[in-house]
Specification:
Two copies of one chain form a homodimer. Chain A is mostly helical. Helix content of chain A is 85%, strand content 0%. In chain A, helix 1 runs antiparallel to helix 4, helix 4 (119-139) runs antiparallel to helix 5 (142-172) and helix 5 (142-172) packs antiparallel against helix 6. Chain A starts with a helix and ends with a helix.
Chain lengths: 227, 227
């Protein structure tokens, strides 16, 4: 690999990680706003989304320039295509953090729902998946990446349980409908953030091992023997 | 451009359009299953998703091979990167069609909700957006693509109205909660399909005019004077 290409790839990596850290920050803030019922903090998340959008365009532009200038092949090409997709997923995660923040603003203005929810456990799982998917990206670690993919099933299951709990609550007490529907949205956004973290993890496996684990049944994704 | 590259790009275009038509078909089927309360048809949509997933991998693989073999620059490179993104959006639209089909199966097993809903109008708008975004892609038509972007605002507004209608219904009559929540999911899936159609339209504008209209305020997206 030429020195120039290496230099440009290093710069790209730095920018992608900067984007990742902005997005992780936004997600953590949105979650904190939700749990702490902090409307002010929620507003900050919405305001930060422009910076994430700008960073997405920068990273994509950088990828295109490297492709055009160096015409990389094999592993480098695979890496660049993966960065394009990771970048896209990160931007989507930023949007979802914004959506959670909006719901958090509404919920902060209402009386809290008096039920035990799995939301804190779900939040913890999603947060871990986001952080581990970014670590897997930095370290190019397929073992960690596969762990993220496995965790996605647990988050899906939590989302289904939250759905049942919230639906039952609304039927029992119609005065909870508005808040429960908003909270249901939050759990969907969390689940989609987990999906995006899984996409990133799958891209890491693809870059490092050249193996596509998208669309594979989960046990095989975990085992890594998918064709 | 070399004859070989032209030949490969033609083949790629054909495959992308085949993928587009599979996805459009799935969406229309899911919608029909929902409106006609046809559980059998809904099941067909779920079964068809594997074929869409396989096609996604094929198209992506083709893009990677063309990039590695021909190392295209300028317009061709931009086109290939756009195809990678369009491909991704199409796969997501296929998933969303599957989600709608699942909800349709549940709703077909229940008594219909006795309220006038905007759902048919929303469905019609989304269907038009999907079909026009694919036409814009085939014809590389930025005027049509910008029309798709504008229509997205109308779909968002419809989704918000459906949200209010369904929330009010649940509060008035708790026996509707389960069905209303499922219908609310359908409207969210429809809205996300519209978002993906918008992404495709934005990619068409990017390929043809070299202009990024993502993240621009909508009137400017429509006018095409965004910086």
């Amino acid at each position: 690999m030429s020195k120039h290409l290496q230099h440009d790839l290093d710069r790209l990596k730095k920018e992608t990680l900067a984007m990742g850290s902005m997005v992780e920050h936004a997600i953590n803030k949105a979650i904190r706003a939700l749990l702490d019922r902090d409307a002010e903090l929620a507003r900050e998340v919405s305001q930060g989304d422009d910076a994430i959008d700008r960073k997405e365009l920068e990273v994509e532009d950088m990828c295109l320039k490297i492709l055009a200038l160096h015409q990389p092949v094999a592993g480098d090409l695979r890496y660049l295509v993966a960065v394009l997709k990771v970048n896209n997923d990160l931007e989507r995660m930023g949007d979802l953090a914004g959506n959670i923040a909006e719901r958090a603003m509404f919920l902060a203005s209402q009386a809290p729902l008096a039920i035990e929810l799995e939301i804190e456990r779900m939040v913890e799982s999603v947060r871990t998946m986001v952080s581990e998917s970014l670590d897997a990206l930095v370290e190019q670690d397929p073992v960690l990446a596969r762990r993220v993919c496995r965790e996605d099933d647990a988050v899906d299951a939590m989302q289904r349980r939250m759905f049942d709990t919230l639906t039952a609550l609304m039927m029992r007490d119609p005065s909870t409908v508005e808040r429960a529907v908003q909270l249901l949205s939050v759990t969907r956004h969390l689940e989609r953030i987990a999906d995006s973290a899984t996409n990133i993890a799958e891209d890491v496996v693809f870059v490092v091992e050249g193996e596509v684990i998208r669309h594979a049944p989960h046990p095989e994704r975990a085992r890594g023997s998918v064709r």
